[in-house]
Design goal:
The protein is α/β, with parallel strands linked by helices and about 210 residues long. It has two domains: about 5-90 and about 180-205, D-Maltodextrin-Binding Protein, domain 2 (3-Layer(aba) Sandwich), CATH 3.40.190; about 95-175, 3-Layer(aba) Sandwich (D-Maltodextrin-Binding Protein, domain 2). The chain has eight helices and eleven strands. The chain has helices at about 15-25, 55-60, 75-80, 120-130, 145, 160-165, 185-190, 195-205; strands spanning about 5-10, 40, 45-50, 70, 85-90, 95-100, 110-115, 135, 155-160, 170-180, 180-185. The strands form two sheets. Strands 2-3-1-4-11-5 form a six-stranded mixed beta sheet. The radius of gyration is 19 Å and the shape is elongated. The model has no long low-confidence stretch (mean pLDDT about 95). Bound molecules: adenosine-5'-triphosphate and 1-O-pyrophosphono-5-O-phosphono-alpha-D-ribofuranose. Adenosine-5'-triphosphate binds near residues 54 and 178. The site of adenosine-5'-triphosphate has 16 residues, from helix 3.
């Protein structure tokens, strides 16, 4: 039997994602919190789990190095990868917003400077609203940008709202709700159809 490879996003959603796999009876040998290993096999050897930086999960799945991926909608949208998005795993819930100084009126700025870890998502949002923008790609601490004048606003993830609040910023527009999704390689979906369908069925009933 072919092994099914799952690329799972490292970081804050990893633990809940693994718990969900455990809920459908999939357990991995030698998997523990402090391990630096990146490849694990399920106890029955039917599934190989690879730990991948969240932003890279869509690439592994699109290229067929992984049959399935477990990753946030944020990274799926930004990657624009040619994969099937099959299931909302209902974990890692957060949302994309436009944030900035609470007194800022977006419509008053001719060409808005937008800092983001997600420039494609930012561009697509402002294309819809008709606002002309210039994007500035950052890799973290995005909330700093409007504070020190690098950008007018940010497009970023908000979960508790604490980071915005502690930096004196407010939500100016809501962009999109985010959660962790299951993505599938298009070729694998055809060639390993039975096993992938049965995996999906188990996940769906665990989520009900
Ligand atoms: N407060 C949050 N901030 C960022 N991502 C969150 C938050 N809550 C849930 N998520 C989800 O968790 C996923 C993984 O987040 P995590 O911060 O671990 O990865 P990352 O953004 O690649 O981090 P880094 O670039 O710092 O390594 C995100 O892609 C998003 O879908
Ligand atoms: O609404 P909150 O609960 O405060 O969460 C949102 C914050 O968390 C994320 O940052 P992260 O911790 O990944 O840090 P970085 O992007 O600055 O590396 C995100 O980019 C926000 O800054």
């Amino acid at each position: 039997m072919d092994t099914i490879t799952i690329a799972l996003a490292k970081g804050r959603t990893a633990e809940d994602s693994i718990t969900l796999l455990n809920d459908i009876g999939i357990y991995f040998n030698d998997l523990h919190e402090k391990s630096r290993k990146l490849v694990f096999y399920s106890t029955d050897k039917a599934i190989r789990l690879i730990f991948v930086k969240a932003v890279d999960v869509p690439t592994y799945v699109e290229k067929g190095s992984a049959d399935l991926g477990v990753v946030g909608k944020d990274n799926i949208l930004e990657a624009q990868a040619d994969v099937y998005e099959m299931l909302d795993l209902k974990l890692g819930k957060c949302k994309f917003v436009v944030a900035g100084d609470p007194d800022l009126e977006l419509g008053t700025i001719q060409r808005l400077k937008v800092a983001s870890k997600y420039p494609i998502i930012a561009k697509n949002h402002f294309l819809k609203t008709g606002q002309s923008i210039e994007t500035i790609k950052l890799n973290g601490s995005v909330e700093l940008a409007p504070l020190i004048g690098l950008a007018d606003v940010i497009v970023d993830i908000v979960e508790t709202g604490n980071t915005l609040k502690e930096n004196g910023l407010s939500v100016l527009e809501e962009v999109e709700n985010i959660s962790t999704r299951l993505i599938v390689n298009k070729a694998s979906f055809a060639t390993k159809s039975d096993r992938i369908q049965s995996f999906l069925k188990k996940l769906k009933s665990a989520l009900e």
